[in-house]
């Protein structure tokens, strides 16, 4: 059982060759820039600023490791942010690719998608990659609280179709504001760690 209240920030890594050897189980958080990865981690851990949050896309430019009860939570840089220098975008891509292709002990990938918008091509590329590699993953739909009831109903119907090709994957609406989805996400994490 994970003690989410006793989490500590471990370290940030800016280059692929700096990543530590993977020994403990890892839960990786992936998604486009500004999708709310840091906000989700703060909500999950019940802390305000353990993961730095910014309204500026592309703020997480390193691979950040957190430890909770010996389980590593890994905040990956966001993809799809075009306003950074090409060298930076390439470095982020290289880090993410290296992270997934270096034989790490990944128990679960939490793939974040903004519930208000259709998934992007890059989101589907990531999902396709997870499907092809057989890495277990769940889809978390962030910013659920920002939808009006009628918009949400419409998006829920669209989402069913959007992710119909995903093989039996949990899709969890999530709000960093009101905590919707926290219990469900923790249950998925526990399931994949058992």
Alpha-beta content class: alpha/beta
The count of β-strands is 7
Shape: globular
Mean pLDDT: 88
Summarize the helix and strand pattern as letters. EEHEEHEHEHEH
Q: Per CATH, what is the topology?
A: Rossmann fold
Unreliable runs: 54-59
CATH architecture label name: 3-Layer(aba) Sandwich
- Determine Rg (CA atoms, Å): 16 Å
As laid out across the biggest beta sheet, the strand order is 1-3-4-2-5-6-7
CATH homologous superfamily caption? P-loop containing nucleotide triphosphate hydrolases
What is the overall number of helices?
5
Largest sheet composition: 7 strands, mixed
How much of the sequence lies in strands comes to 15-25%
Structure description:
It is globular, with a radius of gyration of 16 Å. The protein has 5 helices and 7 strands; from the N terminus they run E-E-H-E-E-H-E-H-E-H-E-H. The protein has one domain: P-loop containing nucleotide triphosphate hydrolases (Rossmann fold). Residues 54-59 have low confidence and may be disordered. The chain has a 7-stranded mixed beta sheet, with helices on both faces. 33% of the residues lie in helices and 22% in strands. The protein has 194 residues and is α/β, with parallel strands linked by helices.
């Amino acid at each position: 059982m994970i003690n989410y209240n006793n989490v500590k920030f471990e370290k940030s890594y800016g280059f692929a060759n700096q990543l530590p050897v993977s020994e403990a189980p890892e839960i990786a958080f992936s998604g486009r820039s500004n999708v709310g990865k840091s906000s989700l981690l703060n909500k999950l851990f019940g802390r305000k600023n353990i993961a730095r949050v910014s309204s500026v896309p592309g703020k997480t430019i390193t691979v950040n490791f957190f430890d909770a009860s010996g389980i590593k939570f890994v905040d990956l840089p966001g993809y799809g942010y075009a306003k950074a220098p090409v060298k930076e975008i390439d470095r982020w891509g290289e880090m993410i690719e290296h992270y997934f292709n270096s034989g790490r002990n990944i128990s679960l990938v939490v793939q974040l998608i903004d519930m208000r918008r259709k998934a992007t091509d890059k989101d589907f590329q990531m999902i396709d990659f997870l499907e092809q590699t057989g890495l277990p993953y769940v889809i978390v739909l962030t910013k659920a609280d920002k939808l009006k009831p009628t918009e949400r109903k419409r998006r829920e119907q669209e989402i069913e179709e959007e992710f119909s090709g995903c093989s039996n994957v949990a899709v969890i609406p999530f709000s960093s504001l009101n905590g919707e989805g926290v219990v469900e996400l923790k249950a998925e994490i526990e399931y994949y760690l058992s």
